[in-house]
Design brief:
Elements: H1 7-25, H2 34-40, H3 85-89, H4 116-129, H5 137-148, H6 162-172, H7 196-205, H8 210-222, H9 228-245, H10 250-259, H11 269-275, H12 279-282, H13 293-306, H14 311-320, H15 325-337, H16 342-347, H17 354-369
Helix pairs in contact: 1-7, 1-15, 1-17, 4-5, 4-7, 4-17, 7-8, 7-9, 7-17, 8-9, 10-13, 13-14, 13-15, 14-15
Length: 373
């Protein structure tokens, strides 16, 4: 381990660890009973695995293919002239998997592959690396649209979260791309934070102030997740990332993690950690395993604090407790990677796209660090 790692090194570790966490949790994403994970993978997930054929908790068949959210009681009118988002606009070769119960959300994905939202983080990384100027939301949203509508698909995933479907439903109705974010029951979700870290890292390495980065991240979130409660968590996440980029010691890091929960959860995380109860009593009882930011954000901070000295264990615990473990894992992996290179060193080269991702990380950092004219 480097004794005094530079910001560039910590950013590299953080981004690599985030992609590792995503791929690790992918095969048991949205399994809501840990015993179902144990049944599918004896001893739980311990390494990268392919997505199983059968998913015991999958409700993908109940999600709307025409907009964000789930199917209405009336379904969708057959004579509706509006295009079907899933099949006509995005996921053009995956629509056939949406109507069958218990199909895995990441059907057909292989061990070490990354999910759609992780690929969207890569879209942002590439967009940021294209210019030494501050973040341009117009450039990103155009890159996002191009990526999502490619045929054949530019990613291996089968499922698109509610926010993707809502965005493209609004775009199909003629809205301007910058105003296509749709509010649904799960807009305020942990998946919204998946693309935040690359933006924070790029802007901070360019010398932009934390206050201005918060503004940029709110504008970025508004493209796809226009929710006020989510914006407050995003501010806390930005502040935490900026502080961890400076390389605080372990005691200061834990204090920063606990501080990031203040005002965003009624549960006292420090007291919960002192009680040292089993993780399954915290994730699943104190906090929901679901995607909602009110529970998933404190879960991330809890695991980051408890397993600060063992990041690989933190990622395995997060994975094997199920629920929205993929998106929690990406955020958790980012926080842990800013502190340690152990996971990135051991696992990154087992990712299917590790060569391409490494190039994209290096490009993001190089452009952000380029001398300003």
């Amino acid at each position: 381990m480097t004794n005094h790692p530079s910001q560039k090194l910590r950013v590299t570790w953080a981004l690599k660890t985030s992609f590792i966490a995503d791929a690790l949790a992918m095969p048991v994403h949205w399994y809501y009973q840990p015993m179902e994970i144990e049944h599918a993978f004896t001893g739980g997930i311990q390494r990268f695995e392919a997505a199983p054929e059968f998913h015991p908790s999958s409700i993908m068949s109940l999600h709307s293919k025409h907009k964000g959210g789930r199917l209405s009681a009336k379904g969708h009118l057959a004579h509706d002239p509006a295009p079907q988002v899933v099949g006509d606009i995005i996921l053009k070769d995956k629509v056939q998997f949406w109507d069958t119960p218990n199909v895995h959300y990441h059907h057909g994905m292989q061990a070490g592959e990354n999910t759609l939202n992780a690929h969207c983080a890569r879209v942002l990384m590439r967009s940021l690396a294209n210019s030494s100027q501050p973040y341009d939301r117009h450039a990103f949203v155009n890159a996002y649209i191009d990526f999502m509508t490619k045929s054949p698909a530019a990613h291996p995933d089968t499922y698109a979260e509610s926010y993707h479907r809502g965005f493209f439903a609004n775009l199909a109705q003629g809205r301007e791309p910058e105003n296509c974010g749709m509010i649904t029951h799960d807009t305020a979700s942990i998946g919204a934070l998946v693309t935040i870290a690359p933006l924070v890292f790029s802007e901070r390495l360019k010398g932009i102030s934390e206050a201005d980065i918060k503004i940029a991240c709110r504008a970025h979130l508004a493209l796809t997740h226009p929710d006020k409660s989510l914006m407050r968590v995003c501010d806390s996440y930005v502040q935490l990332l900026c502080a961890l980029m400076e390389g605080p010691d372990e005691v200061s890091t834990k204090a920063l993690l606990l501080e990031a929960s203040i005002g965003l959860t009624s549960t006292h995380l420090a007291g919960l950690l002192k009680r040292n109860v089993p993780d399954s009593q915290v994730i699943g009882q104190v906090f929901s395993r679901a995607c909602y930011i009110s529970d998933s954000w404190p879960i991330v901070l809890y695991l980051a604090c408890k397993y600060q000295d063992d990041p690989w264990q933190a990622l395995r615990v997060n994975t094997n407790l199920g629920g929205d473990n993929v998106h929690r894992g990406i955020v958790l992996g980012t926080l842990l990677g800013l502190q340690s290179d152990t996971v990135a060193t051991s696992w990154f080269e087992q990712l299917v796209d590790h060569k391409e991702i490494a190039v994209e990380i290096e490009a993001l950092i190089s452009v952000a660090n380029a001398p300003k004219s």
